[in-house]
Amino acid sequence: MELTEQSFRALARSSPWRWRSVHLVREVGGPVGEGDVEAVIRRPHLMRVVADGEVHVVRDGPTRVAPYTRDGRSGPVDVPTAADVKPVLDADGLVRVRPDSAVVGLDDPMWQSYDWVAMLDPVELADGSPWRDPATGADVETPPLAPEPYPELDRPTRVPVPGTLVSDLRAGDRHGRATWWARVVPTWAYEPRCSCCPLLPSEVADRLEHDEEGSPFVPGREYPSAHDVALDAATGICVEIHAVGGPRPGIVHDVRIHAVDEAYGDELFIERSRWLPRAPRFRGR
Hints:
The protein has 3 helices and 11 strands, in the order H-E-E-E-E-E-E-H-E-E-H-E-E-E. It is mainly beta. The longest helix has 11 residues, at 203-213. The chain starts with a helix and ends in a 25-residue tail after the last strand.
């Protein structure tokens, strides 16, 4: 695959369809705190975490909320997951346009904050809100795509808008895995998975957080001028974010992938103990 801005964005959209299980270590925490976190994730709803010597098993059941249905009724229903939806792919097998997350459950299990979910599925590095102008943040509404790429779903898919500016593209090797890098700056349409814990800490995210809380935004904090972002080329997982400029330039998070699409049995996801010695680490078996 050739690395271009278009293919970088497509890879950032593609994670829900590019792996079924992963074993990784996140060596630097995000906004929640510092420290190693080791996890085995088996899609769609299972995760085993070792953090500070403790074992945690996270089981997220299927999404039970669908705000839009064909017959106009509301109420809890099982929504499809990524495994139920055939994505629209480009010639390289990357996702060209995603289904609306309001009607397809694409989230992986969460560990402590939603930047973990966004790390595993970093679509916010590609697409922004179709209801905000990328240049100004003014209210807009992009039209539905025609023809509709996901007619089996219950909500029209709107023309995507860029949530970021992408430059300085480069491919390389990171911990023995092919990796795509880019320098990324959020636009005013940037739409983090959660505004309180974005992959790209920025004024845009802080303004969204204040808007959601109904409180006025008061400038007064310095932000990074950009972020250098690394995507694992095989999985689409965001494996590194490095803040450029601002008061604290440096690594925001750092992930090492140990295995992809290994078979992990149900027995791994039984929480037998709340405490494990710090060494040796579990190896997913």
